[in-house]
Specification:
- By secondary structure, the chain is an alpha/beta fold.
- Helix 1 runs parallel beside helix 3, helix 3 packs parallel to helix 4 and helix 10 runs parallel beside helix 11.
Length: 520
Amino acid sequence: MPFLDWVNKNQAVQTSDNVPYHLLQLEQSYVRSQESGVRSQESGVRSQDNLIIQGDNLQALKALLPFYTGKVKCIFIDPPYNTKSAFEHYDDKLEHSQWLSVMYPRLVLLRELLAEDGSIWIAIDDNEAHYLKVLLDEVFGRKNFVANVVWQKRTSPDARLQLGDAHDHIHVFARSKPNLVLSKLPQSEKQLKNFKNPDNDSRGVWASSDYSAQGFRPNQMYEITTPAGVIHRPPAGTCWKNVESVFLQLVADNRIWFGKDGKGVPRRKTFLCESEGVSAWSWWENVDVGHNQEAKKEVLAIFGGEDAFDTPKPERLIQRILHIATNENDLVLDSFLGSGTTAAVAHKMKRRYIGIEMGEHAQTHCIPRLNKVIDGEQGGISKAVNWQGGGGFSFYTLGAPVFDADGHITTGVRFKDLAAYIWWLETKTATGVKIDPAQTPFIGEQEGVAYYLLYNGILGDRRPNGGNVLTSGVLAYLQKIHPHSGKKVIFGEASRLGLARLAAANIEFKQIPYELHDRV
């Protein structure tokens, strides 16, 4: 498979591994009780898993890995299009190779966060769309390409241009295409008009579809005699959709329509009561999912003219993506949050979400917008989904890096933070970690290996017998809290046990911070 090459690509490929691991610092939580209608703003209040993070999205994505690797069902991002234009709220004027270097490591980390049955949707225009497709092929694999959705973003041509663009692209990739299941769309009002009941079928209204299929299959080339005695054969270049035995079963169940006079070419009946909806395709008209002008009106209504975001997406567009790619309570991530549209729509659709935004508008736009959503704001898709307000979210900033310039663990790093990070480093997963509220050193077991962390005076104090150093007494305690005859990996400041003793107990001791710093 061919790969893109550009200036400093080697550095870009290594960037995701070299990003320092930072802690996330909870600043404030915003919660509104539907019963009381009162929104609280108390520090330390967690609002489930709805996170807004202000900070560099590369560092924020790395900070999320220990907790969310493999857990995100849908990622939607609307990165800078690199149009050589100037926008007030973000830089959209990157040189091409620099743009590729910005995107590559972020895509690598986003892939790690995506669930096995998850998908990523990326909005882009023609300036970088085709380069981005090849970049995604490299990171996600060509076999995981799902579709290039073409969204009709304008309602009329731009008179200033000789040949203006009417669309944006939305590249869709799966984490693992065989595991991906996408939901169907509900019938539109136009489609519902096709459902009728001319034969008074007790199952209710139905729509009919052509019973022929392209191609030639010998066992599907039979003659069909209608109730009025007219004989039909498959049209040229086609065959019937099913073998004759299946066709006769459909006739017996009154699922074939020959027209009111009983002479027509057979058509199959599909009942509305049995319909699961219609499959989405890659052409999305603005009448169905909104357009740029609609998006602009939405943010004007929320922020006013002076503070409106320059390039928002309409809520209906995000609604369709989340409808197709997620179910209620699934986790959605947007690492280029902008004005907060993805988080607002996810909140209204009862999805959990994480939004990352580097600029000040994380506070000037995203937080105010989500507070209005919590209070029952009725713009965008609110009426369509019967949004009444409620719920909440937590606002985070990037805290200190785990390691300082000398490679030492930063003061303030707590046991649970380091334990989650170690678990991710060792297992490359965010599931299975066991951080006991009572704080015992055992942090999890996977594939027959048990993991322990001796840190922060976990067993009492910082003296060797207090818990940060592996001694005979500490080992006996570890075996007591989690008896394990297989391999044990123990992280700690030092070990007082000799190599022979460690080998006899099937222990691999890893000294902190040295065994961690080189792996960040």
